[in-house]
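--- STAGE predict ---
source: upstream dedup step, 1 unique chain passed
mode: sequence only
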Amino acid sequence: MNHLLEKIALTQIEGVGPITSRALVSYLNGIENVFSASKKDLIQIPGIGEKTVQSILHHREAFKKAEAEAKFIQQHDIQVHFYTDKGYPFRLKSIEDSPVLLYYKGNGDLDHTRIVAIIGTRSPSDQGKSLCEKLVEDLKEYQVLIVSGLAYGVDICAHRKSLECHIPTIGVMGNGLDKIYPAAHQATTKRMMAQGGLLTQFITRTNPDRENFPMRNKVVAGMSDAVVVIESGIEGGSMITAEYANHYNKDVFAIPGRPTDKQSEGCNTLIKRNKASLIENAGDLARMMNWDKKDIHLVQSALFHDLDHHQQQVISLLKHNEFISIDRLYHELQLSPSAVAGLMLDLEFKGLIKTLPGKKYILVM
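--- STAGE serialize ---
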């Protein structure tokens, strides 16, 4: 991987988070120029102060960590995705505070056509577990990938039921790939490697500290098309993830509970505040996500003889996907947002595509 050490080292510089990292790479025209830049060049970048400049200039310790991490990556067959790389999840690319670097082990598709996050309390009721299992089981026919946070409770219930139903599932971690947390989920994660995988933004020897989990939750929300909350208190990780999902313009859903149930207080609150749509089952979710169409008519290729290369590329993508999001189009076409907008408007005028809520597109007759 090109400039692997620089990419890892960038994430280990004190005071340099995702937004600052993007600014550095953008203003200096590539990751390869960040660590060779002069103080004069660095201080001119908006948002880069003296302290951060000094941290970048004195980068020896960051590169020592990067070298150790590179060895671990090679030994354990880990995929590394920098935010400018083609392999970086396209749903996260447009989110300015998503991690600039991700470590992934497994065979699940991070750009799967439909990704659903299932989250909830760490101590669900028997009914909550049953609801989770039933939801996962019934989502199988919609060919989804299930993502969650590998935690106790609803998270691990969703992962395990996915494995049982042969649905790909990805666990997003709040620590490095050298350690499974909670340790009790070790056996489950081994099975997930063959039917999904594990994803993290943290290097090895990173402990599962409390402050890491909100960052983990951002990834869960950002890489999903839909986030489903099953039993949650009024506070906690699930509510944080739902807030991130709303901020990222993702579709958020919650299964309601009785007003007197503390474990349903969070779900009920999300629904009351219009921060989540009420669902009771997988059918509700599919209808709201426009996944319940039984017959998507494909236009014959002969009708497309007068389309240019990029228009043909869009039609080809839509032939193999029930719908496609604007984020994925940016990723696949590698065009500017204005160019993509013009392209899609032209196709819509031709009567070949239709725009759906949430900046998604489908092929029509």
